[in-house]
Amino acid sequence: MSTLTQKEFVLGLFEAAPATYSSLRQLGKESFYAQGLPALKAEEYKFTPISKKLETSLTDFSPAKPVKISAEQVKSALFAGFEGAVLVFSNGQYLPEHSTSVEGISVRLLSENESTPLGSIAEAGKDPFVALNQATFSDGLHISLEKNTKVDSPILLLQFHQAQGGQVISPRIWIEAGDFSKATFIDYHISLDDAPYFVNKVVEIKGGNNTDLTYHSLQKEHNQVIEVSNLVTDIQKDSQFTSTQITLSGDMVRNNLTLNLLGSNSVGNMFGIYLLNGKTHVDNHTNVDHTIPHAESNELYKGILADQSRGVFNGKIFVRQIAQKTNAFQQNNNILLSEDAIINTKPQLEIWADDVKCSHGCTVGQLDAEAQFYLQARGIDKTTAKGLLLYAFAGEVLDKIEVDSLRNYIVKQIQERLGSKF
Amino acid sequence: MLSIKNLHASIEGTPILRGINLEVKAGEVHAIMGPNGSGKSTLASVLAGREEYEVTEGEVIFQGKELLELSPEDRAREGVFLAFQYPIEIPGVSTTNFLRTALNQVREYRGLEPLDAVKFLSLMKEKMALVEIDQKLLSRSLNEGFSGGEKKRNEIFQMAMLEPVLSILDETDSGLDIDALRIVSNGVNKLKSEKTATIVVTHYQRLLDYIVPDFVHVLYKGRIVKSGTKELALELEEKGYDWIKEEVDSTATV
To answer: Hey, is A38 helix, strand or coil?
Structure first.
């Protein structure tokens, strides 16, 4: 297999970049060159050798063009019982013909709305993949919630991915929420076939005051997919933002989640489940920045790792000196189902204020044999017993998902994965 | 119904049971008593199929089947029920959900149709009355935050739901106050029939005032060293275990 150097890797992408946002792209390019792809021992990517993975797995470093999607494909991708709006994407390109509209929400192509302040929330200088996306994204979507818009049913961002082998998909989404608005998004990635590709996604969410936003992300692509996802949000006064990150498969997946708490009385919630098998490698890096007093962050990630899968969790909580009366809680629990599964988990707390409540904890363990025996002693077979216990373990996070159709879908995926019939 | 012959079992190489012989017939209640460390709970665990114990010798026939060949779940499905000395807390799994899964797997094994939600609930209501257990408790996570008495009542409730042929109560009286003891015992007594049998493992005679045994066996150093009727339990209550220990230990040295 031919391997490409970093230079070759990015050149093809830079050359293919559209003419829109030219100065922004130029800044992205410069920022990318200044940072480079993460070196093997780079602290931020320590356990996730993403550069090596890209260099050895991908063969064609051009952007994947959108592929045709049928109405049937859209329909069959929806979760059973799903009710809500659907925004359909093909390799990052928005497809209005398959999408539904929501009152109070306007959607526009980024290419037709060049005043969108991309990069103002997800800053290129913070991560080379953000910079790379900024320089090379083909198009994306600008979603805007009008002031006072409250959407109770979820908005599904259905992202179909298909590449001819080793191509790059760079989705870019900008969401801005007017004051007093409320919405729930579900970002769902689906592979259309099993050819490998690299997804480099950036989502920026600009919240207003008194907003209540939820962003569920479900990653269930095939096991040759490499993905780096960056989600960055600004949370303003009296607002709440909740993220749930569910990862069920992939080759190497890296999720960077950054919450900037910018207004007092704001809350940031970060929840996640990773259920991994085979050789899947998933790295969740979260970063919450308490910049003001009287804000709260809650974090709970649960991992179940089988076979030779590998998980990485790094949760950074940064409390600035001014951010007194901060409440910040973090928890990461893992169950290893095989001797070959690995988890690297690290809480990273940097606290400069002196009147705060912060806690963190991480656990790594195995399935409780005594509990398993108890269930078996009541007539439940071993596999189902195991499934019930793992479901219970993940339940604390599953319960946070208020969209029934999504939660039921995930539960079903877990049951199927575990061969369990509870 | 149950025939235990020369059963030896050890844990991590240490022998605990050293030749148990016991015959249990349908309709009978047997009490297994004995001092701490005599192997009472081990016997209960080995019968239920706990994996830490290694059976090194002997056989157990339950209704014509080699019990020790069966997985723990198949033993349960055949009708063996162990009421745990220390019921496990399982956060995130409700008693209701757990029991429906269990009951339907047991029914499937016995060639019966699964119970639908309505029938399951009405069965639950009927059995709840038996052990005076509250529905609120059952919708909570299995045993999580339950008091000692609630946990034991939940054990007997599960027993009522699963309708076992052979019930083994492992120190069910431990941690129970007098009211809970009465409720639990009443439940067990109501579930007794001509077709079922009960093995009561206990350290004290107290429980046997409520669940009256047909036979009492004293376990010491991994063997049944004395068998008798319920009067034996009263004698033990009065005189303690020392006289039996002395009797056994002196014979052993001769």
So the answer is: coil
Q: Which of A370, A393, A421 is opposite residue B92, by nearest beta carbon?
A: A393
- What angle, 0 to 180 degrees and rounded to 10, lies between the N-to-C axes of helices B148-162 and B95-109? 30
Q: Which of A273, A374, A388 to mutate to test the interface with B (most CBs of B within 10 A)?
A: A374
CA pair distance A230, A285, nearest whole angstrom:
10
Q: Show Cβ contacts of residue A309 under 8 Å, excluding neighbours closer than 6 positions.
A: A276, A277, A278, A279, A280, A281, A282, A341, A342
Q: A422 CB near a chain B CB, below 8 Å?
A: yes
pTM of the entire structure?
0.87
Q: In the numeric block, which tokens belong to residue A141?
A: 């979507």
Nearest CA in chain B to A376: B73
Given a cut of 90, whether residue B235 has pLDDT beyond it is no
Per-residue pLDDT, B129: 87
Q: Which of B98, B115, B157 to mutate to test the interface with A (most CBs of A within 10 A)?
A: B98
Q: Does A339 touch chain B (CB under 8 A)?
A: no
User: Residue type at A367?
Assistant: L
Asked if the C-beta of A352 comes within 8 angstroms of chain B's C-beta atoms, the answer is: no
In this predicted model, what pLDDT tens digit does every residue of A163-198 receive, in sequence order?
887 789 999 999 999 999 999 999 999 999 888 999
B77 touches chain A (CB under 8 A): yes
Separation between Cα atoms, residue A219 and residue A227, nearest integer Å: 10
Mean pLDDT confidence for A314-319: 97
A55-59, A91-95, B4-8, B237-241: segment of lowest average pLDDT: A55-59
Contact A104, A112 (CB under 8 A): no
Q: Is the ipTM of this complex over 0.85?
A: yes
pLDDT above 60 (res A3): no
